[in-house]
Every structure is written in structure tokens, then in C-alpha cells.
């Protein structure tokens, strides 16, 4: 079965056995009866034909969620049919084909009940899919009526071909439906001067972006970035800026979104918002989130952001100010994440940060547990410190801001919840704090401060005890590098066995030794 043209990250719907049984009961009814019942609209009074658009807006998001749920169920069923077909489970194949047929008809009827102005192309696509599903059901029904192995064998390739075609038609219909919905929502945003209608449409659009990268590409392709930046340039929609910017950040997780942002001078608009003190903190924070998204080091398509360099100094200045004045941990996280990404994006950013006393501001923020309250925030701070530590002037800033003490504390970073994302963040904090220590310890004053704070014993512990570093190889390599740098400054601070195993050999040999260590060795 070929891959379907569906949102790549469509949410999985967890259904327990009782719920699934109830779902199956509902679907085993006669197809025609089911579809006729579902397509009957609730009667309305004649004078209510010209209903306000607001009344339907409320349920648009729910209707789309229902559509996506149906789509996920159908794609899952098609995959399961392919698996049962391989095992020649003909009765199961037929039962599941009937179920898919019901789901497809229900999805089409449910969608047509709430959508407006569907295109002829969409109606044609619906017709093709229904016809092919009926043909598919007829094929599988013939299979359960015969036990002749030769006939079944000859029909199997035909059923496989039909299954592939059903999957293809289904994927095309979903693509058309989602494109149509994106166009409708963007049209409402473009044409409306009502804050309420625009807010509702943007909310529905944001919900679509949460369904995965594929939907973000569709929205970007249909001009979503252009439309949303128009909102961000109108004072009458100021109250919607945070919501609009949050939606933009989601769309810009894909290359098409960032290309569109560049074409409409989005960077300049974001810079204007960040530097305008009349905007709310929420607006500034969401603008910072867009900056963090488009400068993410994980993206491979940020090189074309030439206009970013032109506005970088004022953006960095505004982000540092936002970090300094942040009223909550979430605001600080968004601002510091943007700064951290920018330090990867361009080395000049580190020099600008140094001139702005950013290191002092970040170190001070870390002492406020209300602001820097999670490993994720500390990860952003230590990323900035690590990238700035390549500059010679950073050493004195670290000493003055009691930064060595902070880096030492970060070597003890542990997850309190055991959540996998938080554990990974803790590992990054440990690794980057060790990297920063290694880089800064070329300055004798920093190295001396680190030694006095007992950094060497902690680094040895991290090297020798896999559980202390959560079995992370990247943390081990960083700790070995930092330990070797400090050992040069204070060779007497190590036991002979530590020196012989962790410092004297080649780094790769020490690494292999530590990765093979048992806990009892400590």
C-alpha cells in the first residue's frame, strides 16, 4: 500500500476496547440507511436561511477535527486491510472493507453538511472515491463466496490494485478538502473587518497547523503567511497579534512558510513589533517565538534569510530587553530560545550580546527561580553562554556574574519528572555547561574558580558514573574535554587512577573505557 497524501503528523487517536466496540457496532449498519440518515439536515425556519456566519464559525474547528479523525481511522483501516490481505484473511478483509466504505461515506456526508461552496473538482473526487470503494467491497464479497484457491489467487492482485487506487483517491480527496478549508479560513481573514470573525478564523487556522507539517505546507502554499502578516500590520487588530504570531510560528516550521515570510518582509515586521514598546508583553513574546522558529539550528533552509542580518542588531537588543523584563518563565523561555538560536545563526550576534551586557542579564535571571524555572530555560541560557564563550572577553563577564558557580550547578541538572523531553533537556544542560567550562578554562582565573568550586570531582563523577549522565555519550565527551583542560591547570587535583584513565590516554580511549564501566566501579 503506497503512502497516503495525509498530514504527516496527524494525531493518533487512542481508543480503548469498549469505545472501539461501540464504534464497530455503529458502523456495521447498512451503508445506504446510514448515509441517508446522516445527510438529513436539521430543519431550519425559512427566515433563518441567511444565518450569520458567526453561528457556523463556532463549530468549524470541531468539524475539521471530526474530519481528521475520520481520515485517520480510514488510513489506519486501509493499512490493516493490506496486512490481512497478505495473510489471505478474506472474511476479515471483507468486513474491514465494508467498514471503510461506511467511514468514507460518513466522512463525505459529514463534510458536505458543514462545508460551503465545494468545488466541482472536489465533488468529482468524492464520486470517484465512493465508486472505487463500492467496487472494492464487491470484489471482497466475491472472495468470501468462493474457496477455490486459484480464483482467490488471481483475484488477490486485482484487490491489491483496487486497494492502492482507493488509497490514492482518498489521499487526493483529503488534500482537496484541507486545501479548501485553508482557503475558506484565509478568505474570511482577508475579507472581514470584524475582530470576532477574524479571531475565530485565526483560531481554526491555528488548530489546522497543529495537525502536522503537511497542513502547514498547504496553508503556506495558499498564502497563509501573507494574510497573517497583513493582520500584524493593522492597528485595529492589535488585540489579535499574539494569536496571529503564534499561528505564524507554527506555519514557519516548514520551508514554504519561511520563504513566504521572506517575500513579505516578515523580518522587518517582527523587528518593528519587538521594538515597539506600546505592544503588550504577550505580543513581544509571540514575536520572539516566530524568531526562534525561523532561526532554529535544526532547519536546513534558513540561509536565505538575508533580511534577518539587516535587522539583527535591533532584534537582539529587543530580545535581551524582553529577557530582562520577563514577568514569567514562559516569556523568558521564548525570548532566550530566540537568542540561543541567533547565536548559532550568526557569530556577530555573540559580539552584540557582549556589548549589551547580555551575559550579566542572563546570569541574574538564573538566580530567579520564578523566571528560569525549568531545564528548558536553563538549556537556552547555557546554549548562549557556550556560544559566547568563544570570545575572549567573556571570561571576565563570567567571573563578575558568578557564572562559574552557575555552570557548576548545571553539571548536577536532573529531571524531576522523568519525562523523556525533560530528561533530554537535562542532558543538554550538562553537556553544554561542560563545554562552556572547557572553553572558558583557557583563562586561568576561570579555571582557578572552577577548581575551587570542586568542578574536577564532579566531572570525574559524570565520566565514571553512567547514571549521573543518564548514559549520555555527548555529556561524557564534554566532561572529558573539560576535565582535561582543568587538569592542565591543577594536575594535583586528580588521583593517579583518574589521571591515568581519564586524562593521559587519547580522548577516544578514555571515552571507550568510561562507556564500558559498571556502576560498581565507582
UniProtKB/TrEMBL annotation:
GO terms for cellular component: apical cortex. SMART domains: ARM (SM00185). GO terms for biological process: apical protein localization; asymmetric cell division; establishment of mitotic spindle orientation; regulation of asymmetric cell division. Gene3D superfamilies: Inscuteable LGN-binding domain, Leucine-rich Repeat Variant. GO terms for molecular function: cytoskeletal anchor activity. Pfam families: Insc_C (PF19427), INSC_LBD (PF16748). Residues 70-522 form the Protein inscuteable homologue C-terminal domain. This is INSC protein. It comes from Smithornis capensis.
